[in-house]
Amino acid sequence: MEKICGLNNIDIGESAEIIRLENKGSIRRRLFDLGIIAGNSISCVLKAPLKDPSAYLVKGAVVAIREKDSKKIIVRCKNE
Predict the structure, then answer these.
(1) How confident is the model at residue 15 (pLDDT cuts 50, 70, 90)?
(2) Sign of the C-alpha dihedral, residues 76, 77, 79, 80?
(3) Upper half-sphere CA count for residue 32 (Cβ side, 13 Å)
(4) I need a surface site. Which of 4, 28, 49, 71 has the fewest CB within 10 A?
(5) 71 CB burial (10 A radius; 0-12, 13-18, 19+)
(6) For residue 7, which phi and psi values (nearest 5 degrees)?
(7) Threshold 0.70, pTM exceeds
């Protein structure tokens, strides 16, 4: 079963498909430059003890994203 959620809700080892970005301005452009665009696959590889930041694998690169920004990245993840 699939669910739609913010990127911050996926756990370490889980993968998801990016649906859309609700971020605005320069952070949105930065995320696009890093390959975080609709249709791409993304997986969580590491979460800091206080959940900020978290590291994600996208297009072969590991990217650290703050929780406030990852909440605005909407993904489709598989609920197992």
Answers:
(1) very high
(2) positive
(3) 10
(4) 49
(5) middle
(6) -60, -30
(7) yes
| pLDDT for 79 | 58
Instruction: State the pLDDT at residue 56.
Output: 95
Could you report the per-residue pLDDT of 31-50, keeping only the tens digit for each? 999 999 999 999 999 999 88
Length of the chain: 80
Residues ≥6 apart with Cβ < 8 Å to 26: none
Q: What backbone torsions phi and psi does residue 26 show, to the nearest 5 degrees?
A: -65, -30
What pLDDT, on the 0 to 100 scale, is given for residue 1? 62
**Is the alpha carbon torsion for 9, 16, 12, 25 positive or negative?**
negative
Tell how strand 73-78 and strand 15-21 pair up.
antiparallel
